[in-house]
Amino acid sequence: MTLSLLAFGVVIALNNLALSLTLGALDGRRHWRRILSVFAVFEFTVPLIGVWLGREIAQAVATDLGWLGPVILAGLGITTLLSLRADRRDRAHLVRAMTSWRGLAALSAGLSTDNLMVGFGLGLGGVSPLALATTIMVCSVSFAAIGLQVGHRVSRDYERPALAVSGIALIGLAAASALGWL
Question: Structure pTM?
Answer without folding.
Answer: 0.67
